[in-house]
Design goal:
It is a single chain. The chain contains 11 helices and 7 strands. By secondary structure, it is α/β, with parallel strands linked by helices. The chain has 2 domains: 2-171, Rossmann fold (3-Layer(aba) Sandwich); 181-246, rRNA adenine dimethylase, C-terminal domain (Helicase, Ruva Protein, domain 3, Orthogonal Bundle). Strands 3-2-1-4-5-7-6 form a 7-stranded mixed beta sheet, with helices on both faces. The radius of gyration is 20 Å and the shape is elongated. Residues 2-173 form the Ribosomal RNA adenine methylase transferase N-terminal domain.
Length: 247
């Protein structure tokens, strides 16, 4: 836990948003170095125990903890504005939770999340990789993502059957485009819905015809015979912008 806190770069001026604190081991590590921790926990029993755990083990920092009992995929308000996110995300919903936090709380500028190793690779994958896909592109809309280490299953209790990976996130401005995020993301979903197909075919149903897809792709400076896995988020934004102009 202390290694994760150190890698996160969190300091005394940070308000850290933590998701799924569980028994509080990471929470305690964060409270040792951060100004405040806002912990979002869906389980009422765990959420109720967390303040008591902190009060017993780190009494001089107990007043710096806020616990929000809520589903992290639905929370829209927090008692303090986060500057960073450090979390061991629930593996079955890691990507949706991460994208929700990026979209809903734009104030945080950097983060470090622990997810299943395979998911960590996908989130941080670059265009051209076989594992580059929807999580890679949508995360890149908000932030630069990179692998920041691995975590052995043996440090967990109970011991999981999967390896874990750390992903570092640094917020950046989204692509400069007149297309909305929703339009870009819908386009990304369509492009990777049939990722083995060339874009002119993969997008034909999305735009109405193969000819319309070719027209938009060429206008955006994208080869219609390319596949979605070679395009970065900026290219998807250009395509969405062209589609918006033809509708």
């Amino acid at each position: 836990m202390r290694r994760i806190v150190a890698v996160s770069g969190v300091g005394p001026d940070d308000v850290v948003l933590e998701v799924g604190p569980g028994l509080g081991s990471l929470t305690l590590g964060l409270l040792e170095v951060a100004d405040r921790v806002v912990a979002v926990e869906i389980d009422e029993l765990l959420a109720g125990e967390l303040p008591r755990t902190v009060a017993e083990r780190l009494p001089d920092r107990a007043d710096r903890l806020d616990v929000v009992t809520a589903d992290a995929m639905r929370v829209t308000e927090l008692p303090a504005t986060p500057t960073a996110v450090v979390a061991n995300l629930p593996y079955n919903v890691a990507v949706p939770v991460l994208l929700h936090l990026l979209a809903t709380f734009p104030e945080w500028q950097r983060g470090l999340v622990m997810v299943q190793a395979e998911v960590a690779d996908r989130i941080s994958a670059a265009p051209g990789s076989k594992i580059y896909g929807i999580p890679s592109v949508k995360t890149a809309w908000y932030a630069e993502a990179s692998r920041a280490g691995s975590v052995s299953p043996t440090v967990f209790w109970p011991v999981p059957n999967v390896d874990s990976g750390l992903v570092a996130l640094r917020r950046r401005e989204p692509p400069a485009t007149t297309a909305s995020r929703e339009d870009v993301f819908a386009l990304v979903d369509a492009a990777f819905g049939q990722r083995r197909k060339m874009l002119r075919s993969a997008l034909s149903g999305f735009v109405g015809s193969s000819a319309a897809a070719v027209e938009a792709l060429e206008a955006a400076g994208v080869d219609p015979q390319a596949r979605g896995e070679v395009l970065d988020v900026t290219a998807f934004a250009r395509i969405a912008e062209q589609l918006g102009r033809t509708r």
